[in-house]
């Protein structure tokens, strides 16, 4: 990067009108859009081949998927509802990822966040609704935040691998939830599906006016925007990006890497816990086994697809929410197992990860490698 | 089977039997992962391989009537998954841990996709050898009814321990795992060695899956694996990449996993779900106890991303 000639202002002077500078600006940024989109297309083509191989029509499948996910106002609202928890679950992966950590146990934070919120909502029955909902949110976020924050602390202070520990913690969290909803917190009236006592209606989160989508979507989008601001515009985010690039360098610079890691993982877990709280307050009405619905795992895929960019998470989560939402329709219309969606997600995931290898490989996206005027040769 | 009342002795006995029964998939997955990690890669996708192995073994056993053909199918399927992981990770900037997570989702999804028709029919079991016939107490007989795969796994652990030290292939795998540069200087291609090591690791994980569906619990359901594939990865670290250690750790984990059912069998039902979490908690505690921020783990392959 010591190449002074490649700085835009010099270039602009070199080529009159700034046309080339604009082109270079576009080219440099195009890579981050073109490669993931191409990977998405390749993944869908591979999935078409898979569907052909099992004797079904990929055209019909994608048509069904479109109809089930985005074809009507009804299905769009359904997709948005399913995308809402994915926004928060993906942040649980994306934030630690900026520090170079691969945390995949968001499911545990979601589950515990939901249980904590339900317990608070039941315990405070009778208190003013805004206060209870606020405390439910805080409690859910705290439960998730502590859970994943511990993973971060173990990583930094004990060098315990965060990928494995977070997943183990997720299994422990699910066992803990089963214990609580079948034992101490169980509503005796819930026979077939052990649950906590149902929340009073005034403590439920309603829908956004004019839509059949709950407020969780707004919370999720806000969380993504705030996370983006945190990472890109604050000094903590800057420090995190340095530590993510090179821990040693960050330590040499005097950055407090430990608190940074614990803070980011706790925040990430807090978002996932909030997803659990919203799931309880807006969808389920009580905490039960449905909390472990796999949002945490789909969230991993969302975060990687978005390349851990919180703003990119918003469209990707809604896209995957739509794919999720169409699962039932695919099952009914095309006589395919409900796991079809899982296969598609797995394929997309692999292709996206594989596409990492193409970053920086194409001349097209790197103006430094473009043909230069003769008098600049050798100056690169 | 009649039960004789042996009181609280039933708990350690059920745990011993459970340790032998539950540990077998751990043994195979962890030995497979030990081979892969010794070559310098980590394959978190073994969880998916395990589930797909369980499904394919069950499906083939149902269709052919032979559990051994099922076992073979599971090993082949595992080999394919392993080879795929090994191949895709050779490309620059492709992260082996992330690919493992993706393969975990993909393998599970694929297993559920193809396994749907096989949830109902029943498949023949892999044979077990009754070592407990000398006793007339049914619980003892049950505990010592040992599946052949457990014995094969034990033998394999000893063989691998010997082979890593004393054979050319063992040395090649270790060199590649410790320093790719040194391996290249010796004229070895690290990518090829890792490809094969990941392939073999996948095949062993597939066999572990076959045990799940063809012996214990002995049926194919979508909940067949509860993270055994992942715990096995943690277990390899705990065992310091030593095959004999893997075997011992697998037994320990099996015993922890059998704690819940064993207590339930003597009438302790309080906190059943908490006991169910015992193996995960044990894994976590062991990881915390054996990791250290200030030094690299003894015996850790130098090229392994997870310990860097």
Describe the protein in words:
The complex is a heterodimer of chains A (380) and B (308). Chain A is built from 15 helices and no strands. By secondary structure, chain A is mostly helical. Chain A has a domain of 261 residues: ABC transporter involved in vitamin B12 uptake, BtuC (Orthogonal Bundle), CATH 1.10.3470. In chain A, helix 9 crosses helix 11. By secondary structure, chain B is mainly alpha-helical. Chain B has a domain of 213 residues. A two-stranded antiparallel sheet of chain B has the order 1-2. In chain B, helix 1 runs antiparallel to helix 9. The longest helix of chain B is centred in the N-terminal third of the chain and has 29 residues. The relative contact order of chain B is 0.22.
Provide the β-strand percentage band of chain B. Answer: under 5%
Second CATH tier, the architecture of the domain at 75-335 in chain A: Orthogonal Bundle
Low-confidence segments of chain A, given as residue ranges, are 1-5
Overall morphology of chain A: globular
Structural class of chain A: mainly alpha
Number of E-state strands of chain A: 0
Radius of gyration of chain B, Cα only, in angstroms?
A: 19 Å
Largest sheet of chain B: 2 strands, antiparallel
Summed up, what is this model?
The complex is a heterodimer of chains A (380) and B (308). Chain A has 380 residues and is an all-alpha fold.
Strand and helix layout:
The complex is a heterodimer of chains A (380) and B (308).
Chain A: H1 8-14, H2 19-53, H3 58-70, H4 73-98, H5 106-123, H6 129-158, H7 162-182, H8 216-233, H9 235-245, H10 247-252, H11 257-284, H12 295-305, H13 310-325, H14 327-334, H15 340-355
Helix pairs in contact in A: 1-2, 2-15, 3-4, 3-13, 3-14, 4-8, 4-11, 4-12, 4-13, 5-6, 5-7, 5-11, 5-12, 6-7, 6-11, 8-9, 8-13, 9-11, 12-13, 12-15
Chain B: H1 10-38, H2 46-64, H3 67-88, H4 96-115, E1 128-130, H5 138-143, E2 145-147, H6 148-166, H7 168-178, H8 180-185, H9 190-214, H10 228-238, H11 243-265, H12 272-276, H13 278-290
């Amino acid at each position: 990067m010591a190449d002074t000639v490649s700085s835009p202002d010099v270039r602009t002077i070199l080529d009159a009108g700034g046309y080339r500078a604009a082109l270079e600006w576009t080219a440099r940024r195009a890579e981050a859009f073109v490669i993931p989109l191409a990977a998405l297309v390749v993944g869908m083509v591979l999935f078409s081949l898979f569907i052909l191989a099992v004797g079904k029509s990929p055209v019909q499948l994608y048509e069904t998927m479109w109809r089930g996910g985005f074809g009507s106002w009804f299905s769009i609202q359904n997709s948005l509802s399913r995308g809402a928890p994915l926004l928060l679950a993906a942040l649980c992966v994306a934030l630690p990822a900026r520090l170079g950590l691969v945390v995949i146990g968001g499911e545990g934070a979601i589950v515990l966040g939901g249980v904590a919120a339900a317990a608070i909502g039941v315990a405070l029955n009778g208190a003013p609704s805004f206060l209870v909902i606020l405390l439910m949110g805080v409690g859910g976020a705290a439960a998730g935040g502590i859970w994943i924050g511990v993973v971060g602390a173990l990583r930094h202070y004990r060098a315990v691998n965060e990928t494995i520990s977070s997943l183990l913690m997720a299994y422990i969290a699910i066992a803990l939830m089963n214990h609580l909803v079948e034992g101490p917190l169980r509503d005796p009236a819930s026979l077939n599906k052990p649950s906590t006592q149902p929340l009073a209606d005034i403590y439920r989160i309603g829908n956004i006016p004019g839509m059949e989508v709950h407020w969780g979507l707004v919370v999720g989008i806000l969380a993504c925007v705030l996370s983006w601001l945190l990472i890109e515009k604050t000094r903590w985010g800057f420090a995190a990006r340095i530590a993510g690039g090179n821990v040693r360098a960050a330590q040499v610079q005097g950055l407090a890497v430990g608190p940074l890691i614990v803070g980011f993982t706790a925040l990430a877990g807090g978002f996932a816990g909030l997803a659990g709280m919203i799931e309880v307050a807006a969808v389920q009405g009580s905490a039960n086994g449905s909390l472990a619905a796999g949002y945490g795992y789909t969230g991993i895929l969302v975060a990687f697809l978005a390349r851990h960019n919180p703003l990119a998470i918003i469209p990707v989560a809604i896209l995957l929410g739509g794919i999720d939402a169409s699962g039932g329709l695919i099952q009914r219309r095309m006589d395919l197992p409900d796991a079809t969606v899982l296969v598609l997600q797995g394929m997309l995931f692999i292709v996206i990860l594989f596409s990492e290898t193409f970053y920086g490989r194409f001349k097209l996206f790197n103006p430094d490698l473009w043909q230069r005027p003769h008098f600049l040769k050798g100056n690169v | 089977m009649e039960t004789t009342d042996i009181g609280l002795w039933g708990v350690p006995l059920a745990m011993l039997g459970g340790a032998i029964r539950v540990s077998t998939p751990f043994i195979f997955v962890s030995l497979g992962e030990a081979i892969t990690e010794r070559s310098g890669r980590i394959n978190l996708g073994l969880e998916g391989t395990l589930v797909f192995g369980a499904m394919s073994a069950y499906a083939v056993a149902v269709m052919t009537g032979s559990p051994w053909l099922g076992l073979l199918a599971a090993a082949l399927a595992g080999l394919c998954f392993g080879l795929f992981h090994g191949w895709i990770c050779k490309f620059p900037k492709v992260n082996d841990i992330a690919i493992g997570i993706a393969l975990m989702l993909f393998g599970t999804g694929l297993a559920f996709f193809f396994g749907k028709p096989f949830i109902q029919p029943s498949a023949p079991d892999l044979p077990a050898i009754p070592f407990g016939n000398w006793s007339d107490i049914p619980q003892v007989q049950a505990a010592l009814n040992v599946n052949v795969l457990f014995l094969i796994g034990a033998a394999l652990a000893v063989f691998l321990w010997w082979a890593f030290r004393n054979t050319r292939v063992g040395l090649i795998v270790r060199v590649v795992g410790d320093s790719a540069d040194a391996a290249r200087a010796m004229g070895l291609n690290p990518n090829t060695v890792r490809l094969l090591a990941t392939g073999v690791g996948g095949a062993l994980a597939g066999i572990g899956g076959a045990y799940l569906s063809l012996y214990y619990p002995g049926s194919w359901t979508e909940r067949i694996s509860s993270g055994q594939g992942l715990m096995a990865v943690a277990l390899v670290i705990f065992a310091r990449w030593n095959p004999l250690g893997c075997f011992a750790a697998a037994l320990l984990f099996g015993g922890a996993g059998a704690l819940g059912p064993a207590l339930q069998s003597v009438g302790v039902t309080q906190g059943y779900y908490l006991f169910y979490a015992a193996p995960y908690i044990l894994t976590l505690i062991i990881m915390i106890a054996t990791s250290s921020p200030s030094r690299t783990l003894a015996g850790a392959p130098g090229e392994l991303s997870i310990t860097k």
